User: Which sequence fits this backbone?
């Protein structure tokens, strides 16, 4: 019998960018933030990165989906992509570039992160005027 481990989330950050050092492979996280201030609505945020670090992903291909919405029970998929895991022991950094994300009104926008259709994290992003 093969045990199936559930992926574990080690880090979830919203930031302005991620620089990867070509020599060492180290990641430098730039401009971490947890809310968005806007002068008027609707507002479009031009660019942000959702950075995830995962572990305990079984070897092979996996799918990450990130959904968002004002109604936490009805988030809309924003991003879906596949990634490879070499081993459950590896740490996997996923850099998800989000461009021109629109917010129709102020509020708490629910975020749902799923791996292989299993919820991994439910959180929120505050957008205020």
Assistant:
């Amino acid at each position: 019998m093969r045990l199936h481990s559930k992926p574990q989330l080690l880090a979830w950050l919203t930031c302005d960018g991620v620089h990867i050092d070509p020599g060492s492979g180290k990641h430098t996280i730039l401009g971490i933030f947890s809310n968005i201030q806007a002068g008027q609505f609707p507002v479009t945020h031009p660019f942000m990165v959702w950075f995830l670090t995962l572990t305990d992903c079984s070897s092979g291909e996996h799918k990450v989906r990130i959904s968002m919405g004002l109604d936490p029970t009805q988030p809309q998929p924003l991003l879906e992509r596949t990634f490879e895991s070499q081993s459950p022991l590896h740490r996997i950094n996923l850099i998800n570039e989000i461009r021109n994300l629109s917010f129709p009104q102020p509020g708490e926008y629910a975020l749902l992160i799923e791996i292989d259709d299993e919820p991994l994290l439910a959180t929120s992003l505050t957008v205020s005027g």
